């Protein structure tokens, strides 16, 4: 088994609804250790850059507006198969298709307002971690 790091966001909807602790509990229960974390409020340029892969899609502009609508928690999670494991406990993008017991099935209120982000590949994990954290902000555990 390979110990990996992945990048995660608790999105503005979940922060507004005081779900930070509940979602962190899901990470820890799944064996994903928090090795870096901070709260911040994205500005438009930073949100656009983060979701650049979706530029031009019909949902891109409302997504950027939502992601800048309030503070978020960004974190690096570490564990065996962390990238796939985190995607598994998040559930599918569309909460109506997400498996019961996943974060999105339990807490998302729409396809857009779906509580969490998680990297989908080693390449995106690396890019996304470096987009928000300097190497010295990530702790060995
Ligand atoms: P994921 O967040 O599961 O990796 P994604 O990368 O395809 O999904 O899309 C990024 C975010 O954009 C997603 O979490 C919510 C929003 N989004 C995606 N498809 C959408 C749609 N059809 N309508 C509204 N928002 C959408
Ligand atoms: Mg994605």
TrEMBL record:
Domain Nucleoside diphosphate kinase-like: 3-140
Residues forming the catalytic site: 117 (pros-phosphohistidine intermediate)
Entry binding sites for ATP: 11, 59, 87, 93, 104, 114
One Gene Ontology cellular component annotation held by this UniProt entry: cytoplasm
Main enzyme class: transferase
Record keywords: ATP-binding, Cytoplasm, Kinase, Magnesium, Metal-binding, Nucleotide metabolism, Nucleotide-binding, Phosphoprotein, Transferase
Reactions catalysed according to its record: a 2'-deoxyribonucleoside 5'-diphosphate + ATP = a 2'-deoxyribonucleoside 5'-triphosphate + ADP; a ribonucleoside 5'-diphosphate + ATP = a ribonucleoside 5'-triphosphate + ADP
InterPro entries the UniProt entry points to: NDK-like_dom, NDK-like_dom_sf, Nucleoside_diP_kinase, Nucleoside_diP_kinase_AS
Record localization: Cytoplasm
Task performed by this protein: Major role in the synthesis of nucleoside triphosphates other than ATP. The ATP gamma phosphate is transferred to the NDP beta phosphate via a ping-pong mechanism, using a phosphorylated active-site intermediate.
PANTHER family hit by this protein: NUCLEOSIDE DIPHOSPHATE KINASE, NUCLEOSIDE DIPHOSPHATE KINASE DDB_G0292928-RELATED
The protein's name: Nucleoside diphosphate kinase
Organism: Motilimonas pumila
